[in-house]
Specification:
β1 and β2 form a beta hairpin. The protein starts with a helix and ends with a helix. Strands 1-2 form a two-stranded antiparallel ribbon. α6 runs antiparallel to α7, α13 packs parallel to α23 (445-462) and α33 runs antiparallel to α34. By secondary structure, it is mainly α. The chain contains 39 helices and 2 strands. The radius of gyration is 34 Å and the shape is globular. It is 69% helix and 1% strand.
Length: 732
């Protein structure tokens, strides 16, 4: 989505409460880009601002000055944002067409007129039961078709609407909480508000989403509102709309809200890995399913194979194993789905080319059979029972259900004749690959929310004009809303830790730190500091915290924690603080005397504090106990190199480099061994071999010799001139 940097700069001034400066800058912008209505509003704001300034300069004490200033900032924000929206509509022919179409079709967009039409539809549907059966279907089709045109236009109207006033927000809120409107219509309106607020934050749109979540009784409606306000909560806007913080805090006083927010955060992460899950399914699971079935996939569709193939006769055990693998893969799909994976994305992403999906609203409308685009197929399709059962029991999102119905006739034509006959006669039992989802389970908030998030993900990932929209799945600040400062509160501390653990398991270390950074310090317990320290060990050194600092904080809460001691020792080891790290490893070895890693790291520390003989003694013992442990051999070879025992080290390095895939570090260290032993020509060859296997494009052998290991090299009697000769010999 295109951005106007000048207007963005003015918005930043408003959010930083620089009222006078923002007025001047916006006036300059409007002089260069004149619009009479915008200039009139700005002049009104300036006049009120100057009036306030005049009273202040004359020394009047105005107890409402702060309130007046906030009101002016809100007016200034709305004006600037509306100008930005107008600019973006002008820059995007696509968005401009969406803006103009509903406004050209319908002139009266007052809330009273819209609500009357929506309520009239509900009444008319109720009265359909009184119609004679032979005309009921025709009238139903006409009624639903006319109503869908209204809802499609309303969706586009809301999507492209500008900043709302409080009164308009209240009108929409009343409409969304009214029991006289259809839930499907209300859900679609919530999606339109969400999409609009994602494009341009509007406090009153956000407020409506919050209030719908808080006050509505219809669960699908509440879940859409929850997703909407969580993904549109803007921390920067909270500096201007100060009530946002209190509203979020008040909602989070409710345990249900806290738990569902944490679930939502984890579900969003599952959504974003849909393509990874698709690769797993296509490469690892589907081949086993297909090999265990009696079907073969061809260009003409599925072909049923002969029942008694020669292979089955000659190798009956292979057929049994294939069926077993198929059953295991089917269960794996079920397990993935239960954990939250989007197992249908890969298949249904190829079924979004129908004209149906050209309308944005169709990506978000809840599935209902009377939708004008599918009602004919639904009522007249071959194998209708099969179709209705599959869409009812499967864990398909609304978007995929529409895809399936639209493609149903085409799918049937590609099935084997025997299977087609069973379907048309109602003999085939519909069962989705991921297994059946019980009706009661489909009513659970977790399931409802997951299905809606999959609708969202498909829109932002597949829709042809997706580039015109702010994609929450590509925006870490929006997606990981638990890292939003507005959610950094005491009430959410347990849920924050749950989300952080979830992220750690997926090796998302930066996101883990961002979430834990929002946790109030007084709520950071032992587990929080352990996670922070562990995450920081996988991140670049330039961070607000150090891993060692976090592990020290964990030790304050549990002084004898092996995990905290090991983490601190490793952090100190990595930062070359070998003296302190050695003390910790010695302490750890008293706790676990047979722990190899502790002993190896202690040996390296001993080497670096010039206690080489002690290091060798420890390593010889380990080598005797674990003769096949390459890590022990590796550290021993390096210790022998450092201590001048080059011949012994040479033998170990030859063994290490004889492995099928030798470690690059062994080549480097062997090069040092050869160099220190004055075997210069072979050392040059080994260093070159090391460089050829080096994958880090920024690696410099010169930095290695002149900085990282300069002291070690010099301690073996090698001068700076010799070091430079080696650099030239290796690199030139």
């Amino acid at each position: 989505m295109k951005q106007n940097e000048q207007l963005n700069g003015i918005l930043e001034m408003v959010l930083n409460r620089q009222l006078g400066r923002s007025i001047n800058e916006l006036e300059n912008y409007l002089l260069a880009n004149p619009r009479q209505v915008d200039m009139e509003q700005l002049i009104s704001i300036r006049n009120d601002y100057q009036l306030m300034v005049g009273y202040w300069q004359r020394g009047f004490d105005d107890p409402k000055r702060e309130e007046v200033c906030d009101q002016l900032l809100h007016r200034m924000y709305a004006l600037t944002m509306n100008i930005a929206i107008h600019w973006q509509l002008a820059e995007s022919p696509y968005m401009k067409a969406i803006y103009q179409r509903p406004r050209n079709i319908r002139k009266d967009w007052s809330m009273s007129a819209v609500r009357a039409s929506m309520e009239g539809f509900v009444s008319d549907v109720t009265l359909l039961d009184l119609e004679p059966e032979h005309v009921r279907q025709q009238k139903s089709d006409e009624l639903y078709s006319r109503h869908w045109e209204l809802m499609r236009d309303l969706f586009d109207y809301i999507l492209t609407s500008r900043q709302w006033r409080e009164s308009l927000g209240n009108a929409f809120l009343e409409m969304l909480l009214s029991p006289t409107l259809a839930s499907i219509d209300q859900q679609l309106i919530v999606s339109a508000i969400t999409l609009s607020a994602m494009q341009h934050f509007c406090f009153h749109k956000w407020r409506v989403l919050c209030e719908v979540w808080r006050l509505a009784t219809d669960e699908p409606l509440r879940q859409r509102a929850l997703v909407g306000w969580a993904l549109t909560t803007d921390a920067t806007a909270a500096s201007l709309f100060t009530e946002m913080g209190d509203m979020v805090a008040n909602m989070c006083n409710d345990e249900q809200t806290r738990e569902q927010l944490a679930e939502l955060q984890m579900q969003l992460i599952y959504c974003r890995q849909a393509e990874e899950d698709t690769n797993t399914i296509q490469k690892e699971i589907l081949p086993d399913i297909m090999s265990g079935s009696k079907m073969k996939l061809t260009r003409e569709g599925l072909v049923e194979m002969d029942e008694d193939t020669l292979d089955d006769i000659l190798h009956p055990e292979a057929s049994e194993l294939a069926v077993e693998r198929m059953e295991q893969s089917m269960q794996r799909m079920v397990d993935m789905q239960k954990q939250g994976a989007d197992i249908y994305f890969g298949g249904f992403s190829q079924m979004k080319r129908f004209p149906f999906f050209n309308d944005i609203s169709n990506w978000f409308v809840p599935f209902y059979p009377q939708h004008p685009s599918i009602s004919k197929t639904w009522n007249n399709a071959r194998g209708g029972k099969f179709l209705k059962t599959l869409t009812r029991i499967g864990a398909f999102c609304d978007s995929d259900k529409y895809s399936f119905v639209l493609a149903f006739d085409h799918v049937l034509d590609r099935l084997p004749q025997s299977m087609l006959k069973m379907i048309e006669q109602g003999e085939a039992q519909a069962m989705p690959i991921g297994g059946e989802v019980a009706t009661e389970d489909q009513k659970e908030p977790t399931f409802i929310r997951r299905v809606y998030l999959q609708n969202l993900y498909r829109f932002f990932r597949i829709y042809s004009a997706r580039g015109e929209f702010n994609n929450p799945f590509a925006d870490n600040e929006r997606l990981f809303f638990f890292a939003n400062p507005l959610f950094g509160m005491e009430q959410l501390s347990q849920q924050t830790l749950t989300v952080a653990r979830f992220l750690m398991k997926r090796h998302q270390y930066q996101e883990t730190m961002n979430v834990l950074d929002c946790l109030p310090e007084q709520q950071r317990d032992y587990q929080a500091y352990i996670m922070m320290g562990s995450a920081l060990q996988h991140l670049p050194k330039m961070t607000r915290h150090s891993a060692a600092e976090c592990f020290r904080m964990a030790l304050q809460q549990k002084p004898d924690s092996e995990r905290a001691l090991a983490g601190l020792a490793r952090s100190l080891f990595s930062s070359r603080n070998y003296e302190e790290a050695l003390g910790l490893y010695e302490r750890l070895m008293t706790m676990k005397s047979d722990h190899r890693t502790y002993q190896l790291n202690a040996a390296v520390c001993l080497l670096n504090v010039e206690r080489g003989e002690e290091a060798l003694k420890l390593l010889y013992k380990l080598n005797y106990m674990y003769p096949d442990d390459l890590n022990v051999s590796r550290v021993l070879a390096w210790a022998q190199t450092v201590c001048g025992k080059y011949e012994q080290a040479d033998k170990l390095y030859c063994q290490l480099l004889a492995q099928e895939k030798p470690e690059a570090s062994d080549m480097l260290n062997y090069g040092y061994c050869l160099w220190f032993a004055k075997n210069i020509v072979t050392a040059i060859s080994m260093f070159r071999q090391f460089l050829s296997s080096q994958q880090d494009e920024n690696y410099s052998i010169a930095d290695e010799f002149l900085t990282a290991e300069h002291q070690l090299i010099a301690s073996h009697g090698i001068s700076d001139a010799e070091i430079q000769l080696m650099i030239d010999a290796v690199t030139l």
